[in-house]
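Listing 4. Sequential folding, example run.
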Amino acid sequence: MKNMLITITIIIGLLALTLGLGYYGVFYKNTVGVQDANADRNIFKENKSYVEGMINDLSRLKLEYAQQQDPIAKKALGDTIRERFSNFDINKIEDVNLRNFLMQIRGGY
């Protein structure tokens, strides 16, 4: 009887420990994990390949924008550029023409 009580106590203790660690994991992910993910995102956005990729995309979209004849499609493309590059740091663009294009599309910001 005493061994059975010890076994049940150990099983309940292990279940409680498992649940407690599970709740701790959820708490950690919702607090520290969010900050960790934000830090990873900021590091990614400062990454040279990310910046160069964004600049290449902007260059390609600028060419499309210049070649677009339909005013409705041109406005839609401008809206797409504005949305895609809304959080991009314009100071990372070394090409003055490209930087001025993005400023024009953003509305002078």
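-- end of first protein; second protein begins --
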Amino acid sequence: MPHPPSRHQAQARQFRLDDFPGQGEPPLGVLCDLLCEDHVGTYRLPFPCSWSGEHWRNARTGDAIEGAVVAWRLRIDPTGR
């Protein structure tokens, strides 16, 4: 059975979440950064993504994002790199 997160892990997670202020449904087709989470912790995807209305997609390939997206923000780098 997994252990509950330590206080430090919980604080680190909240710090990362605070950096992704997107709320509600994101605008369609706009480049965004995604924060995902797995059994190890949170991580930012290294490529731009966009919301299709049903799924998050890799903006470069069009592939659906299969990870657990926990937060989003408008893309900081407008060139999409």
